[in-house]
Amino acid sequence: MFRRILIANRGEIALRIIRACRELGIEAVCVYSKADKDAPYLRLADRAICIGAGPSKDSYLNIPRIIAAAEVCDADAIHPGYGFLSERADFAAICRECKIEFIGPSPEAMAQLGDKVAAKRAAKAAKVPIFPGSEGAIEEEDEAVEVAREIGFPVIIKAAAGGGGRGMRVCHNEATLRASIKKAQQEAKAAFGDGAVFIEKFLEHARHVEVQVLGDKHGHSVHLFERDCSMQRRHQKLIEEAPAPGVDRKKIAAVCESAAKLIRTTGYAGAATVEFLMDDEQNFYMLEVNTRVQVEHPVTEMITGQDIVKHSILIAAGEKLGLRQKDIAVTGHAMECRINAEDPARNFMPSPGRIDTWEVPGGPGIRMDTHVVPGYMVPPTYDSMVGKLIAHADDREQCVARMVRALREFRVGPIKTVIPLHLRLLEHSAFREGAVDIHFLERALKQDLLGPVA
After folding, report:
1. What's the CATH number where 326 sits?
2. Catalytic residue chosen out of the listed positions 88, 292, 338, 402
């Protein structure tokens, strides 16, 4: 087992990893930027090392400084959390060269599954359902048009090396496709350092259903069932829940097993999420593989009782995954609302600044993952998420009621948050019926179906 882990991240995920290390008897060392020098979670680490200025390129994305910090503190391993360097195969390779364990997949597995084009090839080989689309990266307009004509419009252009909506364009006709392909390549290059893009069939009313998977270094893998992440804005998830409401459980069982098979056949070790889109007929198509722990992992932890972060550390240390598929069961229903420091009444304008009032909800079935305390300064430098509110109950109806109750208890100020929007969404009839797709929120905001969200 590791003696000391360097946590190459910040915020609530850094705190989450510190807590897992504490329970495993492992020392936790945090790196931090000058913008995070007063972050309260740093006091809970065994040591904290400053690695540079506030901008991510000078700190959390600065590989030489992170490696130097790991060597200074004599860390056995580095946990990248999510975001930043968590899906960089070159970073995982550098860790290996420096004889520091990367808590995540091997560089080879990450390169295969983290790149969307390569992941589609691997999925096809493992007989996992994939979208109709280009076999590889698209270089020229004419090539894009040829693929689109074959699979039919609308189509979507995607960046091979990343996600989050960057490098992504929906095209309903040939003229739009020709005008978009170069722009998508440029945006992908700027965001991920790789301008490769590919084309897939676009679903107008898709639901986003993903499968949590764990694989060890001994060829064993299991799935921890699915999460529905259809409530999104600009491809960024807002509400996640499990089990997915209103989906045939036989189809869920098949897609979960196919996800575990993909991880097993690629020799993947660690936590991964295989993401799928589901059409109106409940057919599933693999979207991508996230080769890291995800923001919404607490949803799965609540319904299965499994600690995904701990499992990731134990797997990286070479231990066998002590889980059999038949031993993993779903209990009740869970839901997560991401609490972002944004003003939904002003087109989701970021709302950084000092938090004077911070009263989080509690009570039965409520979990709050956050690094925030009263007096915390939300920096303008990073992602706007200040916490994750998770509710768990015996069934979905009770879970929604519990989440609504908790959101109404939440007191935050003077910064703005998306809490009023969450309440509107949870009270909407379409959400209550489990009938939202990934474009629901954007349609609702455009048509003013939610009312005031201030």
Report:
1. 3.30.470.20
2. 292
